[in-house]
Amino acid sequence: MADFARSHTGALDSEAPAAAPLDLPQRFDEVIEDLHVVRLPMVTRFRGITEREVALFTGPSGWAEFSPFVEYGTEEASRWLRASLEFSGLIPQTTALAEAAPSTVPVRGSSPAVAEAGTSGETVDVNGTLPACPPDQVAPILSRYDRVGTVKAKVAEHGFASLDEDLTRLREFRRLCPETTLRLDANAGYTLSEALQACEAFAEFDLQYFEQPVPEVEQLAELRDELARRGLPIVIAADESIRKAEDPLRVAELGAAEVIIVKVQPLGGIGAALDVIGASGLPAVVSSALESSVGLAAGAELAARLPRTDRSLDILGDRVACGLGTGRLFTADVVAEDEALTPVDGAIPVTRIVPDPDRLQQLAVDPGRFAWWADRLQSCWSALRG
Over the stretch 144-188, which tens digit does the pLDDT of each residue have? Predict the structure, then answer.
């Protein structure tokens, strides 16, 4: 496997676009011989699911995760695989990542691995995540995050019909955490007119930003203009609108958001995400895609490299709290609890994760689901070959 990676370090030209075809063998199992697929049970329903399936494999740089949501098609999911192959060292890292100051990342787990990126002992701040839940569940859920200084609350689970429930939950949150920084995320759950009404209602909570209230970039731009006209000081962040390399340019061109949310797997890797941030010129927050600790490790490496600008400092502060505390949403992970990337004093380390073999066996999916993931990986592998 290491010989394969060394022989293909010239497969991507440094000036090639992120979507350039990869020089790969015909089948993934010629390179990836240790594929594992696990099912992680969740503390509460989140993003409409109560368990998360993820695929894991190793390369010269260590373990990586491939975990596009099951409803994603091959074209979208193949970007997730590109990110996983890069993080594992099976394909070259992109120019942006190579130019980031490298140093050895420590390894958590039962066997050694070495990776270039990050700083030994470095940590990144994270936010807690409050899913749509009854008010009496707010305190128990937040208690899982230890002492985070920022919380992102999910709203609009059922669109505008959820507004009263959202307000009740957020008021309970503010009663419990009057000084905690609050972000909201609607996952594009509103129409433009509904988003305006929701913003007026949510203004009482002193938000750091409101993430993706409406689906389209043009709608985000209209929303920002109308909020300014009404004198509502709500910062808009774009998440679902930042899915491909060309998206941030459109967001920036239209002035559709003041903050962008970036995720390693959906954007095709750490280097691709850094290129996205640079292209937009906007402050960025790294978020997870509801990953195991293996996937969160890639997010932590990206978070450690976020550029600091005057605008970033003004909106997000000196230490950007990233959405990488989602390990607390699982009742089990692929490593022991003391090895998992879960927040301690509001931060997680920049490190590599090595899954525990017993956990991989205990959490393994049934043969039918393994075959489904293997077929999916092969389809994405073929798409990357071009």
Answer: 887 889 999 999 999 999 999 999 999 999 999 999 999 999 999
The pTM score is 0.85
Reading the block at residue 61, the tokens are 């740089």
Q: From the candidates 52, 169, 263, 359, which is the catalytic residue?
A: 263
Among this protein's residues, is 263 annotated catalytic?
yes
Q: Is 154 known to be catalytic?
A: yes
Burial class of 307 by CB neighbour count within 10 A (0 to 12, 13 to 18, 19+):
exposed
Please indicate, yes or no, whether residues 142 and 86 belong to a single structural domain of this protein. no
> Is-contact 79 267, C-beta < 8 A?
yes
**Cβ contact 80:68 at 8 Å:** yes
Helix-, strand-, coil-residue percentages of the chain, each rounded to 5 = 40, 20, 40
Structural domain includes residue 190: yes
Q: What is the pLDDT of residues 345-372, one digit of tens each?
A: 899 999 999 999 999 999 999 999 999 9
Find the domain containing 97 and state its range. Answer: 2-104+358-385
Q: CATH number, domain at 317? A: 3.20.20.120
CB of 40 closer than 8 Å to CB of 54? yes
Positions at the binding site for Mg(2+): 185, 211, 239
Comparing C-alpha atoms, which of 196, 130, 131 is closest to residue 160? 196
Q: Which two tokens stand for residue 106?
A: 């420590």
Catalytic residue (one of 154, 224, 328, 352):
154
Taking the C-alpha atoms of residue 136 and residue 292, their distance in angstroms, rounded to an integer, is 27
Question: What DSSP string runs through 323-358?
Answer: B--GGGGBS--SS-GGGS---BTTEEE--EE---HH
Q: What letter would DSSP give residue 260? A: E
**Quick one: 145 and 255 in the same domain?**
yes
